[in-house]
Each structure stands twice: as C-alpha cells, then as structure tokens.
Amino acid sequence: MVHEVFPPVVLTTARLVLRPFTAADAPDVHEAWQDEAYVRSAPVGYALARADLPTAVNWCATGMEQRRVDGTGIGFALQPSDGGRLAGHVQLFGVDWTTRTAEMHYWTSPWARGHGFAAEAAAAVARWALTESRLERVFLQVDTANKASLRVAEAAGFRFEGVLRNLVPNRAGTRSDMAVYSLIPADLRPPADPLTPADPRDAG
To answer: Which Pfam families match (predicted)?
Structure first.
C-alpha cells in the first residue's frame, strides 16, 4: 500500500487565505455545525452535525492535522484576506495514493454565504491537488436536492459525470440521489486553438 502525505501548505486566492485550522477557530466551527442548513444537508449519522464545543476544539486543534499526517486527507480553513470570521472549510478525504484520487467536501459558514467563497476555495484546492500534489482525480458527491452545493461544484469548474441513484439515507427518512462531479488534470489545460497548427510546418 502506497503511503504519502500532503505537505503542510497555505494557499491564497483573490479573496481568501486557505490555511490549517487552529484551536482558535473552534467557536466559529462549532457555530457552523449547529446551523440548520448544515445539519439538514449532513448525512444521517454524521457525527459533527450539532457536535459540542469540545469536539470542535479537538477537531480544529489536532483532528484535521492528524488526517494529513496519516495520509488520508487535508483540510483548509477559509479565512477572508481582509480579516473577519472563518468563512468555511474545504477538505480532501478518502485519499487513495495508489490510484491518486481523493474526494472533496466543503461547507460555508452561515454568515459567509452568498459570496462564492466555497467555489473559489474548492477550485484552488482542486488545482493544487492535481498539480502540486500530482493527484489524477478529485471528485465530489452532492445530494441532488442540495441546490447550493450543486452550484458550488459547477462554479468551481467540476465536470458533471452522472447520478448515483438512491445512494444514501437522508434525514427525511428516504434516500438521496447523489450527483457525481470530478476534475482531472486534463480539465485544467486550455483547449487547443483550432486556428493554430500543432506543427508550424503545417502552416500554409
């Protein structure tokens, strides 16, 4: 079994600093976990939905870093460049270093919604993973009823692949269909210009 780890890293976008979590983030993380929209979209049995403050402290101080050290993933706190409260979270998890694939998860803090932060951060993390970390596929599974999350996936540039029907139990007592999106290295390359010959000798 191949075992690698992501390096500790800080990424920047036009409006965000994507950094490791610290214990100081715990109050904002805890508040986000209590938000009704967050709880409603979380899978049945998801341990962090409405988790208490000590759990948030542990998750921020050591939990996310342990996943990086274990080689199973990496998480980023979304910090607005101009200051202010934690805007959200983007995480790679379920990393398979043999096939070089990972799944992505994201959420936006209730007070930061409507600004496109999640899409901006998801695009940056996916690009970093596919280039600097040499992954070959980053994918998402999104409940088809979660329109906001679907918009994030599309705005971040992920390609729609299809729907896994009746995949997971939900809080309504039924089962949810999950839309699958992905990015691969080829998606990051600009399309070839059909007016530019591949070989200058072909120009006539």
So the answer is: Acetyltransf_3
